[in-house]
Amino acid sequence: MYLDKNVGRKKIEGLYHYFLKNIPLIKNIHKVKEIKSIWKVENLQLLENSIEIIDNDYSVQEGKSKYRRHLVRERDSKIIKLAKIKFKKEIGKLYCEVCGFDFEKTYGKIGTDFIEGHHNIGVSELKEDQKTRIEDISLVCSNCHKMLHRRKPWLTVNELKAIIN
C-alpha cells in the first residue's frame, strides 16, 4: 500500500478553505458540528484518492490494550426495554420505525425481538437530572440507527424517512 506524502497537507488546506468560506456561519455551534461531520467524509475521500495500490496482503496490528479514563454520561438501558415492550404490546411485533425492517422476518428466531433503541434527545443535550420518557425513544434497525447519527446535528426519524421515501 502506497500513500501520498501530501495527504495531511491536503486535508489541512481543504479544511482551511472551508472555514474561510464559511467564517460568518461558524459562530453557530451546530455549524461547527456539521463541519466536523463533513471533515470525516472529506478525510475518507482524501484517503481514497491517496491510495495508489492496495495489496491484498496488507495488514495492521490490532488488539493492543490501552488504559483510558474519561468522563461519560450514562444512559439507563431500562427505558429502551420499556419502549420495546410498549411498542410490541401496541403493534404486535418489533420493526424499524424508519424503513420497516423486521429482524424476525429476515433472520427467523434469532431476530425475534431484536431492534435498536434510538434516543431522540442526544445525551450531550441532556441536563444532569433530566428524565427520558418512552416517547423519547424510537425503535430502528442498525442501518437506520447509523444513518441517524451520520451527521451532526443528528437527523430526526422523520428526516431519515423522507430521505428513503
UniProtKB/TrEMBL annotation:
Keyword Repeat: no
Taxonomy, superkingdom: Bacteria
Keywords: Endonuclease, Hydrolase, Nuclease
InterPro entries reported in the protein's UniProt record: HNH
Domain HNH positions: 96-151
Pfam families: HNH
One Gene Ontology MF term: zinc ion binding
Signal sequence annotation: none
Keyword ATP-binding: no
Protein name in UniProt: HNH endonuclease
Protein's organism: Candidatus Marinarcus aquaticus
